């Protein structure tokens, strides 16, 4: 991007237009948090998800962008470059939310991609390579776990049918929901699953407190820590709470408590870098006067160090088995992604764009996983963050201001132009 075109491009990013689009999308699945904050519950592959996608599609088609969808529901909007055969630059994020989610997580990355492309077109800035905005399917994993199914399938990290039997709380399988979704979008042009882009850049709210605390405008994301997710099922026997002696019980809840206590000891970290969470617990038969015969709970374990992620993750099952007393144990790992580092081609483009616009930027890792994680083996990849108020996310209180989001989109637009006009060939992986 030349110095002469940069001011036109930056000015073409509309803070108000972007904010209006975000607020329009926030109406779809709108909820109110415990503190009165406006939030969103928009599960993937739901009617609300499809309604939001149609809104995005209408905006994209209004700009003259080509709209396509692949077999797992990943949605693409394409801005052509001067060389239609050149490998495209991808940008985007996801449109689904957590059940008690905020208005910015994920969706801003898709809206920002569209706003950046619109600004590029309105400013008359030419790019050699096409730019494609993507909305990945099921990043959150709120309805169907694990998350990032769309990007994992696109990157061939897992086959597209790997999660066919995964069911939501109502018993609907991912395959059933996807088939229904594909029928509803039968009018959209189909594209093959996967590809070889030149680069990938994802814009996202930070979901943490660092940028706000340090007074920084832009986070130049250097990588993503590794994650391992497990489901643990502990099976005992039901008994009458009033008549069954405690010493003879096979109490699944008590063994769960023993297991989690032992896991907390395993995951103790004086540096407070390790992340260990039991986020979901199901108890059966779930009555107040019956000893539980079955408990199912989830484990979310994350760490930036590959060896520690492997060692502690592999110790989870034996730790649980040694802790329980009278019940059977089944441990299933449902997600495993090692830490990744982002490519300097992308991180430098983000940092250069922020610096050129007089914005304060800092290099930082991501504690949360994102679709960008699965682009790393495919092409140079990276992310940029904007501040989150109080570091809150996955909560209706999640908030980033319109000026903060607009600043991020201006950096995104400039970085996309820089990448889309690079003369070097992307490395072959």
From TrEMBL:
Keywords: Hydrolase. Signal peptide: none annotated. Residues 223-307 form the Peptidase M20 dimerisation domain. It comes from the Bacteria. InterPro entries: Amidase_Cbmase, Bact_exopeptidase_dim_dom, Peptidase_M20, Peptidase_M20_dimer. Pfam families: M20_dimer, Peptidase_M20. Belongs to the peptidase M20 family. This is M20 family metallo-hydrolase.
């Amino acid at each position: 991007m030349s110095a002469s075109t940069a001011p036109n491009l930056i000015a073409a990013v509309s803070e108000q237009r972007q904010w209006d689009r975000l607020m329009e999308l926030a109406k779809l699945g709108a909820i109110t948090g415990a503190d009165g904050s406006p939030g969103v519950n928009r599960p993937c592959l739901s009617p609300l998800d499809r309604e939001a996608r149609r809104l995005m599609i209408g905006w994209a088609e209004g700009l003259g962008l080509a709209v396509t969808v692949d077999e797992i529901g990943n949605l693409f909007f394409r801005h052509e470059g001067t060389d239609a055969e050149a490998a495209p630059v991808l940008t985007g994020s996801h449109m689904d939310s957590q059940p008690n989610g905020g208005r910015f997580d994920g969706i801003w990355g898709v809206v920002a991609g569209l706003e950046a492309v619109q600004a590029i077109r309105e400013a008359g800035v030419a790019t050699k390579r096409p730019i494609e905005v993507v909305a990945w399917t099921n990043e959150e994993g709120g309805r169907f776990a694990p998350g990032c199914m769309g990007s994992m399938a696109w990157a061939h990290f897992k086959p597209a049918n790997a999660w066919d039997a995964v069911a939501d709380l109502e018993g609907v399988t991912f395959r059933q929901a996807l088939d229904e979704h594909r029928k509803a979008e039968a009018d959209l042009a189909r594209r093959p699953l996967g590809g070889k882009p030149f680069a990938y850049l994802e814009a996202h709210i930070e979901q943490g407190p660092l940028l706000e605390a340090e007074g920084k405008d832009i986070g130049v994301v250097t990588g993503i820590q590794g994650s391992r997710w497990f489901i643990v099922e502990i099976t005992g026997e039901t008994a009458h709470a009033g008549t069954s002696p405690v010493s003879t019980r096979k109490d699944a809840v008590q063994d769960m408590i023993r297991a989690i206590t032992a896991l907390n000891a395993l995951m103790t970290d004086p540096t407070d870098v390790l992340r260990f969470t039991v986020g979901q617990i199901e108890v059966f038969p779930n009555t107040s006067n019956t000893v539980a015969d079955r408990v199912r709970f989830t484990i979310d374990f994350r760490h930036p160090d590959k060896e520690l992620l492997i060692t502690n993750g592999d110790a989870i099952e034996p730790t649980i088995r040694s802790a329980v007393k009278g019940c059977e144990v089944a441990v299933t790992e449902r997600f495993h992604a090692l830490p990744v580092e982002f490519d300097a081609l992308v991180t430098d483009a983000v940092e250069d764009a922020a610096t050129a616009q007089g914005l304060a930027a800092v290099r930082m890792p991501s504690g949360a996983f994102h679709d960008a994680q699965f682009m790393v083996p495919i092409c140079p990849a990276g992310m940029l963050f904007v501040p989150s108020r109080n570091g809150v996310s996955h909560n209706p209180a999640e908030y980033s201001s319109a000026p903060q989001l607009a600043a991020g989109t201006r950096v995104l637009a400039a970085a996309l132009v820089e990448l889309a006009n690079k003369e070097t060939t992307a490395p072959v992986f």
